[in-house]
């Protein structure tokens, strides 16, 4: 049966067996994604699917790929990245170094975009990027830093030649000078502790999957994880209501500053 009560039991089983807690996520969305896989394998019982997942790592990978949407690109919303560059240039003038955290970094295009910004601004090497995601498979790809050309639509030819090497198969690899700024780590932003004192946090196009309560708690925690004056860069449709209450001053669409 693919009813909601059975799905809740399945979600509980996933938490126990795979350590992934779906409770902060929008239930309907999650169920729709899982049901897609159930139909693909002609399962009509979540228990059957749970047993297969428990035994078969390749099915686990597919499951994670399906429930975590990994779509991303370099400099997504390019005009906003100009603003981000400005805010970071201000930080570089004032701070001796610091961490910029890309939370929900997917396959790495976002943290490498930050690294390119830092290189362009000639930031000292003490300015670093922490890149985290829930999905361990995607992080392995991210570390390699190899991308199809379509991921680079917003990267102009000058930046392409400075920070990418074109491989024989037509793909592009981020050069070491940008890669060395970035540390990738598996991290669940709904349950794992946060590193503190970040000078900026990017969390873009992730919270759309979260329930309101989980989202509100997350923004509070992001606020606490920022240094005073630190910048929070969110996705296009993501507004933080009453942000001042949690110590975040709205600067302009997409940007908040820790008071
Ligand atoms: C659509 S991508 C966004 C990538 C990038 N931030 C951007 O805007 O282009 C969403 C990413 O969030 C990750 N994600 C979802 N839930 C998460 C959680 N609880 N903790 C950490 N990452 C999560 C997914 O694995 C996925 O890679």
Provide an overview of this structure.
The protein has 259 residues and is of the alpha/beta class. It has two domains: 4-67, Chemotaxis Receptor Methyltransferase Cher, domain 1, CATH 1.10.155; 78-258, Rossmann fold, CATH 3.40.50.150. The chain is 44% helix and 19% strand. It has ten helices and ten strands. The chain has helices at 4-18, 27-40, 46-55, 57-67, 78-94, 109-120, 136-144, 157-163, 176-179, 212-225, and strands spanning 98-103, 127-133, 146-147, 164-166, 172-174, 182-186, 198-203, 226-234, 248-252, 255-258. It has a seven-stranded mixed sheet with strand order 6-2-1-7-8-10-9. Strands 3-5-4 form a three-stranded antiparallel sheet. Strand 7, helix 10 and strand 8 (226-234) form a beta-alpha-beta unit. Helix 1 packs parallel to helix 3. The longest helix has 17 residues, at 78-94. The chain starts with a helix and ends with a strand.
């Amino acid at each position: 049966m693919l009813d909601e009560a059975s799905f809740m039991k399945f979600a509980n089983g996933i938490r126990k067996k795979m350590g992934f807690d779906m409770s902060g996520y929008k239930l309907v969305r999650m169920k729709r994604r899982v049901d897609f896989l159930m139909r693909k394998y002609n399962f009509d019982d979540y228990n059957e699917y749970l047993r297969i997942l428990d035994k078969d790592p390749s099915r686990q990978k597919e499951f994670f790929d399906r429930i975590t949407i990994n779509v991303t690109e370099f400099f997504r919303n390019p005009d906003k990245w100009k603003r981000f560059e400005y805010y970071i240039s201000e930080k570089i003038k004032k701070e001796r170094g610091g961490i910029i955290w890309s939370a929900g970094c997917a396959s790495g295009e976002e943290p490498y975009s930050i690294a390119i910004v830092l290189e362009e601004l000639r930031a000292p090497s003490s300015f670093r990027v922490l890149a985290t995601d829930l999905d361990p498979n995607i992080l392995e790809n991210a570390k390699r830093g190899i991308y199809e050309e379509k991921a680079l639509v917003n990267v102009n030819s000058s930046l392409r030649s400075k920070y990418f090497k074109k491989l024989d198969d037509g793909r592009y690899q981020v050069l070491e000078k940008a890669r060395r700024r970035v540390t990738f780590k598996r991290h669940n932003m709904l349950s794992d502790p946060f590193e503190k004192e970040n000078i900026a946090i990017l969390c873009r196009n992730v919270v759309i999957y979260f329930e309101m309560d989980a989202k509100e708690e997350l923004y509070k925690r992001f606020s606490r994880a920022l240094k005073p004056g630190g910048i929070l860069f969110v996705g296009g449709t993501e507004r933080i209501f009453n942000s001042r209450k949690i110590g975040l001053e709205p600067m302009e669409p997409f940007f908040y500053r820790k008071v």
